[in-house]
Structure formats: structure tokens, C-alpha cells
């Protein structure tokens, strides 16, 4: 660091500040420091820095699955916001298993992270105990509705399900099904299904079935689930799916069987993935703001690190959801 400071013609404390918080250093000084680091091949020792500060410059983020496109937008926004403050991301995925999540939390804590981000509010007792005892900032994202460990950013999944049911009811659909996958582990999808069924019953539908595929939420699962729904629900005329991939599989299966969408069956998804606006017919879906969730999580983390840890109601941020109506309904 002394060598970098000498070559960049700044003080060692300026180099240290730049490595911790790049935005706190003037652009011209930052450029000189970058040039010196590149010339010297200097790599900061984050472990040593963490020992000196009793915490590292790493934020641990644990998501259910890195194969799930829903979380990519959130992690990307979160990483971008944290990097501007000199923080790096350590990403892990639990495959929807609470014991695996607990193991990842133990590993993350051994690195003295600046903060930990979890997905959802359902965790093992061991995970809660570890995090409550750690004293570090903890943000649970992508779900609201329970008591968070520390802070939470997200939305109500039962309300998402209710929005889907009410939309189908408003289109005159009265024989409904919710198609989901891995809901025995994906508690958020299960809550969307519960909210859908409750709102459907309140609307007086003639039939409403919740169907679960035990494997991953894929296009193939959507095809299988639609076939099951056709067999189990008499006069099926409306379906909501736990995500857009399942909805896409349902659309493909309708095309294979010559079922007109939306004339015979209206189809809804969740997530507003990149293909949803361009598939045929375009997919009605519900958009959660993944990017906004990432930015709000970063805001809470950075505030906590810089001595502005939120209190009371400000510890919980509701990012809401938006119905995107397209041709499939």
C-alpha cells in the first residue's frame, strides 16, 4: 500500500480509503491509485484488512438456486450497488434446503462478513440462532409477512396469488387451477398458491385445484402439470402458475393439444421473465421488482455499515408487485 501511495503521489490513508470506499476519493486521485495498482500488480489482502477491522469487505448472499433466473436481477443490482462502496459479494445457493442454508451461513460467518443476505423468511432454528448472535447486519429478501431476523425487503406472496385469482375472476373464469413446482420446499411459491386458492374461494369459483410437481420449476413441469389439471378440473378455463417457465410449458402444451389461449383457457405466470412479452400468445404475468429489491437491500446494508442502521418500521421495505396483462388472459 505504501508503494501504491508513493507511485500515485497520495497518502497511504487515501489509498486505504479508496480501497474501502472508492466514492469517498476524488475521481482524479482514484484514477492515479488505479494506475499505480495496475502498474505494481498490487492485490489488497482482504483477510488482513478484515482482521484489523474485525469484519471483512465481503457481503454473503444466499439464494435458493443460482439456476433460478428470478434472483439474477436482484443479485446483479445488489452487487453493483455494493461494489461502488468497495464491498464484494460471496454468493451461495441452498437448493431450497434449510440444512444447506445453515451450512452456508456457518461458512460465511467464519469470514467475518460485513453483512449476510438470505432469501425468504423460512430458516432453520440453527440459522436464526447463529445470525441473532452474530451482531452483523442481516437482510432477508424476496418475502414479507413474518418477523425478520433483522431487516427485510420484499413483498407478500399470498397477495401475489390473490392478485392472480382476482384477475382471472375478472375475466369470467370460474374453473381454476394453480400450477406449481417444488412447493414442498419453495415456501414462497406455496404461499402464492394459498393466496390464489383463498381469493378464488372468496370469489365463488366452481372449482380450484392446487397442483404441485415435486421437481424443479421448468417448462417440462408446466406441460406435465397442465395435463394433470385437464384431467382433474372439470371445465378448466383459467390457470395461474408459480413462475413464467411453468406458464410457458402450459402454453406449449395447449398448442400441442389445440387448446385456444385465452379463448378456452387463460394462462398467467409470475416473474415477467425476458420471454414473457414475446412468446405467442404474450404471457400475462405478475412482476416483482427484482432490481428494486437488490437496490433496497444494498441501501440497508450500507446504512448499517456506516452507522445508520434502520430502526422500527424502516427495517422492513415493501417493494410490491405489478400485474402485467397480456394476450394469454
TrEMBL record:
Every HTH lacI-type domain range: 1-53
One annotated GO molecular function: transcription cis-regulatory region binding
Transmembrane segment boundaries: none
This protein's UniProt keywords: DNA-binding, Transcription, Transcription regulation
Transcription listed as a keyword: yes
InterPro entries, A to Z: HTH_LacI, LacI/GalR-like_sensor, Lambda_DNA-bd_dom_sf, Peripla_BP_I
UniProt KW Ribosomal protein keyword: no
Entry-linked CDD domains: HTH_LacI, PBP1_GntR
Pfam families reported in the protein's UniProt record: LacI (PF00356), Peripla_BP_3 (PF13377)
PROSITE patterns referenced in this protein's UniProt entry, alphabetically: HTH_LACI_2
PANTHER family (UniProt xref): LACI-RELATED TRANSCRIPTIONAL REPRESSOR (PTHR30146), TRANSCRIPTIONAL REGULATOR (PTHR30146:SF33)
Name under which the protein is recorded: Substrate-binding domain-containing protein
Organism: Microvirga thermotolerans
